Amino acid sequence: MHSTYKFPSFLFSTSCLLTFALAACSALSPVPTATATSTLTPEPTSMPTSTPTLTPTSSPIRTPPALVGPYQASLLNPLDTPHTYIQEPCQYLHDKWSSTNSAPGTVAMVIMIHSILAGYITPGPDQINEKQLTEMLGSLQNRGFEAITTAQLADFLEHNSRIPEHSVLLVVDDRHHTQYFDQYFRPYWEADQWPVVNAYISAERDGYDASVFKEQELLNAEGWVDYQAHGVVHNYPMWPGASDVYITNELQGSIDAFQSHFNKTPIAIIWPGGGFSSRSVEIARQLGYRLGFTTTPRGPLMFNWVPLSDVADPQRPSWVPEGSVHDPLLVLPRYWDTDASLHLDNVVQMGQEAAAFAQQNKATELEYYDILCSPQYGPIP
Known about the structure:
Layout: H1 9-28, E1 81-83, H2 89-97, E2 107-113, E3 116-117, E4 128-129, H3 130-142, E5 146-147, H4 150-159, E6 166-173, H5 178-184, H6 186-192, E7 196-200, H7 210-222, E8 225-229, H8 244-261, E9 268-270, H9 278-286, E10 291-293, E11 306-308, E12 335-336, H10 344-360, H11 362-377
Parallel strand pairs: 2-6, 2-12, 3-4, 5-6, 6-7, 7-8, 9-10
Antiparallel strand pairs: 1-11
Helix pairs in contact: 2-11, 8-9
């Protein structure tokens, strides 16, 4: 007999409960059906504010001011006007305002001493006696002048190198024995270190034998007598009409003699008789001379400032115009010893006026330099 299996009642109850629960869950949480997917728009966020890029702007263009002309001295003769010789304004301003150089208004006076007579002997028209020389040198010292060498003057005129505020170059023309310098100029060297220039004629004539040259060599070796060229033949000036051969012999002949006897090369030609020409100036420059001196007393010298004349003066017919040679440094004026003392106050005053004029225009010149010159030349020392 087959037995009949009875499903346990508790299992039936549990099954019913599970069935009921699943049905309820299905009703409460229907299975999602496929629907169109919505596009998610992100919430707006704060965007950083865009900062514009600053493009560097060019510096304002600075217009350089106009430079003023050179100082005009009312104390000069109207026909004697200042001539400049430095063509590059930046170089001029650099040297002018450098604190290591001479201050504006520094003035140099060149005095020609032609012939000195002993004691109180009455001098001729182009001579002075010993008493007059002593008075002149004393007047220079009392006004604060100091003597310099030719090389110092050349460096000053070319580059504004420092020299005393009131300087004097004493140029003794023609050749003289050692005794001449010992008597009249050695005391000033020993007391105040004042040198003196010997404008020396190089020809071996007029009794100048080997012993005389030996005497000059010994004096030159002492250092305080500054030998410079005064020609060879000397008696015939190198003025217009002189041949190139003669001019060259006078200038190169002096160089050769100096190198042989004095172991130096002259840097200045003291034109014999004051005679020069455009051609003699040109040849002198080619041979390396840095300075040349006439016998025309037009005025003192300052940096980039030489008083010369471009035209003949009917009132002074012997004063040859120098402007046409276009090389002021080789036609420098000289005061005569016979009346140099009468011009000392004017020389000092011109230096003071030039200094004041420079200060009035300093700001303009420094602005010009800063705009146009400093990129190439650098700051002024």
